[in-house]
Amino acid sequence: MNLSDNTKVGIIIPTKNRSDFVIRALKYYLSLNSPHPLYIGDSSDSEEAGKIIQAVDQLKSKLPVVYLPFPDGDTIKKMIYLLSNVKEKYATYTGDDDYHVPNTLTECALFLEDHFDYESAIGRSITFKLTGNGAYGSLKETHDYPRRSIESDSASERLYLSLGPALTPLINSVMKTKKFRQFFQNSESVFDVVMRSEILPNCRLVVAGKHKVIDRLGFVRQIHDRHFKVPDMYDQLMSPEWYKSYHEIEKIVVADLKSKEAIGQEEAEYNFKKAFWNYLNMYLPRFYRNFTPSFDSPSKKIGFRTRLAASLPVIKKVYRKIRPLFNKKIQLHYEVLQTGSKYYEDFKPIRDSFNPHVHK
Questions:
Q1: pLDDT given at position 1
Q2: Cα separation, 68 vs 78, whole angstroms
Q3: Consecutive H or E run containing 92
Q4: What is the distance of C-alpha 206 from the center of its chain?
Q5: Rounded distance, CA 8 to CA 41, Å?
Q6: Cα–Cα distances in angstroms (integers) from residue 279 to residues 101, 116, 170, 173, 276, in the given order
Q7: DSSP code of residue 195
Q8: Three-state DSSP class for 110?
Q9: Which long-range contacts (CB under 8 A, 24 or more apart) does 198-204 make?
Q10: Handedness of CA 174, 180, 184, 187 (dihedral sign)
Q11: Which of 184, 249, 287, 357 is 20–30 Å from 277 (CA)?
């Protein structure tokens, strides 16, 4: 392989009965002449599958896309199957309703080619909502989806950070296809769906090496009411599957820590416990706060700044202009909508792709 081949990233897209999102994604990547092959793992019924197959047939001469039917069932087996079909050195995952920026994927692959102590890379991220919750609609709102580079030389410290303040799904990152597949293959003994599809691959990836966030828009996630629902954290912890899954993950990750850092069993177990306790300490209170209103139904308090911005929009505009002078933290959800921003050009094709006026 030459370097140009190594910059191609296989994008795996599992889907079921959501042809509208899949077709939207195909048209988006086509509009940008994306060089990154798409691998669609489809568990749809015949009618929905037919729509996707027709779209693939129409576009495959212009867009690198592989259609792979897969029986409905185990999500992990589906991920392994898709990754087994990826021919590229690097791969990433995306939901059928989400977006990768092709040029950022290329930058991530180039970064990994030049930095062998890094295992994964991704661009900055935001989430968005549309009116109507479908594949097309007017942009309703955007929000930051904060991501942090995890660059400690210590695998144990990287694990601690990744399960605490830096926790975000790393499977949306660019990483070596072979390792990506291996991380999922080793999760088949883990029964809890969140633990095996997200927590374990994240832990293994960050123990293996550093994680980089590239300073350009890279991943955009749509929030809507058609997402796959998972149990809240309390219900997960109360499930007998969670206890067994925890110990399976502990066994695998402790072995990784021992191998990576040449430390003993006791120290590796302590470091894993410290990291996972950090995860529970940070996220159990958050889930509880989300759950409590179902009992209390308290009126949501609106902060002073929000009330002020709503009543005096001119002040909000002035604040936006002067904010960078005293606060360097990027408000990406705002920046992607500003024509003068370095992030605008990467978001515009995404916004065009779900614009109902463009897709009449």
A1: 47
A2: 10
A3: strand 90-93
A4: 15
A5: 19
A6: 30, 28, 15, 20, 5
A7: I
A8: helix
A9: 198/169, 198/171, 199/249, 200/249, 200/252, 200/253, 201/170, 201/171, 202/162, 202/163, 202/167, 202/169, 202/170, 202/171, 203/159, 203/162, 203/163, 203/249, 203/253, 203/256, 204/252, 204/253, 204/256
A10: negative
A11: 184
Strand partners, 217: 124
Segments in the chain below pLDDT 50: 1, 298, 316, 319, 325, 360
Please, what's the b/e burial string for 181-220 (b: 16 or more CB within 10 A of its CB; e: otherwise)? Answer: bbbbebbeebbbbebbbbbbbbbbbbbbbbbbbbebbbbb
Q: What is the largest CA-CA distance in the chain?
A: 62
User: What pLDDT is stored for residue 321 in this prediction?
Assistant: 56
Instruction: Kindly state the helix (H) or strand (E) to which residue 122 belongs, with its residue range.
Output: strand 118-130
Cα angle 277, 280, 285 (rounded to 5 degrees) comes to 140
Length of the chain: 360
Q: How far is CA 291 from the centre of its chain?
A: 24
> What would the two tokens of residue 30 be?
């086509």
Distance (Å, whole) CA 130 – CA 149: 29
Tell me the pLDDT tens digit for each residue of 195-247.
998 999 999 999 999 999 999 999 999 998 766 677 788 888 998 889 999 99
Q: Rounded CA gap, 288 and 295, in Å?
A: 11
Rounded to whole angstroms, the Cα distance separating 80 from 187 reads: 10
